[in-house]
């Protein structure tokens, strides 16, 4: 079984270098690693370091960059593992992916249960993540369950089942909910699972992110777009939208130092106005 790792990166050259270097310590090495940046600065220090790492450039945008990786890999692999540029996998991550996909042919996609996720708490440093995984040996409680979609920070895709699928490039820049859109469609072709056999730590770096205003707009507009497209469950989409708006409204009174809650809330309101006017256009964030 051939397994490739694909990483789209923007604005985090130091972090992505650490992550790529750490992949060399996997118990089961990747058959290839593809890193796609949007500028030379994104991939600074990676070129020429390792023959197993292919460095590419693409137009900016998570969906565009991931599609570039898919086109580059083509039919040269059986499984592609998309990880965020700030995701640190446990050392057995790829070995366990190989076992899962080899002995569970009905599984077309899998995502891990994380030890920690800095995207939902405070950011976690690379050294801390490595120490917790490789020295302390932290693992999440045992769990395996079927799911409706995968978490984009770490998702393994069986390429034979994903033929003809691509990430929706109408979800620009950070591509909010692009993982749900892509893998919800993948789930029509087989079984998606979330399992603690696959684990790691999502550092949740705040660098390289889109602005609060743009993200806030995407939190509403992208969900409305996917609801119309039919690639997110109605209850899931509406709940997620209201949760984000409520969190931004409440926390804008006492915002976290590294999160622009007021910008996000303003973006929520602009998008809600557009939705009420019948203008569902995720790409509008590029003009904000």
Automatic annotation (TrEMBL):
Entry keyword Transferase: yes
Q: Which UniProt keywords apply?
A: Glycosyltransferase, Transferase
| One MF term in the entry's GO annotations | glycosyltransferase activity
Q: Report the superkingdom from the record.
A: Bacteria
Q: Which InterPro entries match?
A: Nucleotide-diphossugar_trans
Q: Which family does it belong to?
A: Belongs to the glycosyltransferase 2 family.
Q: What's the name of the protein?
A: Glycosyltransferase
